[in-house]
Design goal:
Layout: H1 6-16, E1 48-52, E2 58-65, H2 92-104, E3 110-114, H3 121-138, E4 144-148, H4 155-164, E5 167-169, H5 177-183, H6 189-212, E6 224-230, H7 237-251, E7 255-260, H8 278-293, H9 298-302, H10 317-324, E8 331-332, H11 338-341, H12 349-358, H13 366-370, E9 383-384, H14 399-403
Parallel strand pairs: 2-3, 3-4, 4-5, 5-6, 6-7, 8-9
Antiparallel strand pairs: 1-2
Helix pairs in contact: 2-3, 3-4, 4-6, 7-8
Length: about 425
């Protein structure tokens, strides 16, 4: 490997880390004030992403790989062993110095560190742990640390990582075991599940110990998360939703992240030639929200899919469910319980909370509901109010066409 300076390594390893969605930031246009008479700032800072802390704060993280070299040859990975990409590697101390330098300049508030696997899983995990240990113990670093752990590593190394990190994550990679065997045969679904189970056990033990002893060491106080790739294998949305629900139930995950497969250079012939629609990724996040915050069961979300097991792309999953199960509507906004109001298309958690509070003082009219949502037209077929009854509207054959957002022609030369 050619000798590279720190800036060159950062450019390579920050770019390689962008495929990990579990520390995602919103995309924007590139802007830079360097060399200009007026203006300040840039959107091109290498390796800086935005994430949310457990208390809801948006924080900036240095997001990099320890190395993009890897002994595994997963078909979907740009950093796989057989990939013809430029390689780089940081030492543990280089990552520590870089993190502290960025932090002192107020560029970041924490670190997201992942890595390809070099030499062995244990060796790589030792280097990742050493970064976190040095930051915490040698330099008293109190910022946020998210470590991507390696499931095949020794459980004791993963446990050590949890003592230094705020959050740990292990990627399940693909939604189904058959997909993992086909596209990442060197990885084991059982091994990944075992490592996630071990982290959950340590988190639970840490909570119990903290109740008894104030001085008990914390273990990954921000919990654990995972990521799965969407569209690289034949798994449909129904299978993905079912897998995600099982992960939440079995391992107490804070988040399941979905990453739409992106074609890579010199790709394997068994991979699809095109990436799935980004809207598919968005619909999966919406279905995830339905299960986590709206009281939907996995079976109910799956029932909103079509015959091919896919969620519709033109309408959101809640709307798809409501159109399939029209017998549950209309819902009276003045008497319906919270769980039914949450199932009304167009009503979010905050709007439902406001409805429950307001109706204690007077009967709500349609215009009152309109103040709580972006478009009351979307709500009309599904609710009744003091001055509104959707006579026969819910039974219309063309209901979907009436409420679905209109198709727009994209501009060829749009900015």
């Amino acid at each position: 490997m050619a000798q590279l300076d720190t800036r060159e390594k950062l450019a390579i390893l920050a770019d390689a880390a962008k495929y990990d969605a579990s520390c995602a930031s919103s995309g924007t246009t590139k802007r830079n004030s360097a060399g200009k008479a007026d203006g300040i700032g840039s959107t091109e800072g290498m390796g800086i992403c935005h994430a949310y802390a457990p208390d809801g704060r948006c924080i900036s993280l240095l997001k990099i790989l320890l190395t993009n070299s890897c002994i595994f040859d997963c078909h979907y990975c740009i950093n796989r062993k057989s990939s013809n990409v430029r390689r780089a590697r940081f030492t543990a101390q280089e990552v520590v110095k870089l993190t502290l330098a960025f932090y002192r300049r107020n560029y970041i508030e924490g670190l997201f560190l992942s890595s390809g696997i070099i030499s062995s899983s244990n060796y790589t995990m030792e280097q990742i742990v050493e970064v976190a240990r040095s930051l915490r113990e040698d330099h008293g670093f109190r910022g946020y640390i998210h470590l991507k752990t390696i499931p095949d590593a020794d459980p004791e190394l993963i446990h050590q990582a949890g003592l230094y990190a705020d959050r740990l994550s292990i990627n399940v990679e693909l939604p189904t075991e058959r997909g993992l065997k086909r596209l990442a045969p060197e990885k084991s679904a059982a091994g990944i599940a075992g490592a996630m189970r071990g982290i959950k056990g340590s988190i639970d033990d840490g909570h119990d110990a903290k109740k008894k002893y104030k001085s008990a060491p914390r273990f990954a106080p921000a919990g654990q998360s995972t990521q799965m790739i969407v569209g690289a294998d034949s798994a449909n949305d129904g299978e993905i939703v079912t897998t995600a629900s099982g992960l939440y139930d079995r391992f107490g995950l804070r988040r399941v992240y979905y990453s739409a497969f992106s074609p890579i250079p010199d790709a394997s012939a068994i991979l699809p030639l095109q990436r799935p629609p980004l809207m598919r990724e968005h619909r999966l996040y919406q279905s995830d929200w339905l299960m986590r915050f709206y009281g939907f069961t996995p079976k109910e979300v799956v029932s909103a899919t079509g015959a091919d097991g896919m969620l519709p792309l033109d309408i959101d999953p809640k709307m798809a469910w409501a159109l399939k199960f029209r017998e549950n509507f209309p819902v009276d906004v003045n008497t319906a319980p919270r769980e039914m109001l949450l199932r009304v298309p167009g009503l979010g958690v905050k709007a439902v909370k406001a409805i429950l509070l307001s109706r204690r003082w007077r009967r709500l009219r349609l215009e009152d509901i309109g103040r709580l949502t972006v478009s009351v037209a979307k709500l009309r077929p599904f609710i009744t109010a003091a001055d509104w009854t959707p006579t026969g509207l819910i039974d219309r054959v063309d209901l979907k066409a009436r409420i679905a957002p209109p198709v727009k022609q994209m501009e060829l030369f749009a900015a």
